[in-house]
Design goal:
The chain has six helices and no strands. With 225 residues, it is mostly helical. It has a domain of 47 residues. Helix 1 packs across helix 3 and helix 3 packs across helix 4. It is elongated and about 115 Å long. The two termini are 28 Å apart.
Length: 225
């Protein structure tokens, strides 16, 4: 003999096919459709009541497992955070040192090139070159040899690496929206606040007046079993 849930399951599986046979075309068929919806709602309630304690037990078990897992993971996460911050601070400092050394070397190379150019111009002037020729020498920088900075390289440990990521921060939403309106950037740069807009639509209904937004009416069916 079939138990209650098996009967409910067998009955539920047949509802989709029954629904395809219901076509609302007059008052009588409307009544049939409406009463069928109510019957389906009653079955939904039975199914949910049957599975409620099962879902509750599963949820409680899941929550307990997550809590137990978190107890062990939290100190590991804290340890990782401390070490990662230390690595980032050190590698950032090494990059700063390298950048400063490169900047200093470039400045020295530029200064040396300028001094050599002045010396060449002074020599040209002493040799009787025209003022225009001397000015041309002064105004035409020579090619500077690319600067190679010899700084200690960080030896990477396999499985551990540093990476730089970039993110955007909106500091003036009005300027951003104005740039979209002026077609300076694509409209994908901004997203509408649908929670706010839907709230305004529910309040204003068809009298909603927000530029670029229209109120859309949707008709649904409410069922009480």
């Amino acid at each position: 003999m079939k138990n209650e849930i098996t009967v409910i399951q067998d009955t539920a599986l047949g509802w989709a096919e029954k629904a395809t046979q219901i076509v609302v075309k007059d008052q009588e068929s409307y009544d049939v459709a409406a009463n069928t919806l109510k019957a389906i709602a009653r079955m939904e309630k039975q199914i949910k009541e049957h599975h409620s304690p099962i879902k509750k037990a599963a949820k409680e078990a899941h929550n307990m497992a997550v809590k137990a897992e978190k107890k062990f993971l939290e100190p590991l996460d804290e340890a990782k955070r401390i070490i990662q911050n230390s690595i980032v601070a050190w590698t950032t400092e090494q990059e700063r040192i390298r950048a400063n050394a490169e900047r200093k070397a470039k400045e020295e190379a530029r200064k040396k090139e300028e001094e050599e150019r002045i010396a060449i111009a002074e020599k040209a002037e002493s040799e009787g070159k025209s003022e225009i020729e001397v000015e041309e020498i002064l105004d035409t920088p020579t090619q500077i040899t690319p600067v190679v900075v010899d700084t200690p390289k960080i030896k990477k440990v396999e499985g551990v690496s540093t990476r730089k990521t970039w993110s955007a921060k909106v500091v003036d939403i009005q300027l951003l929206c104005r740039a979209v309106a002026d077609n300076k950037i694509p409209s994908e740069a901004v997203f509408a606040n649908m929670t706010f807009l839907n709230s305004m639509a529910r309040i204003s209904k068809d009298s909603l007046e927000i530029p670029g937004v229209i109120a859309v009416e949707n008709t649904g069916i409410s069922i009480r079993s």
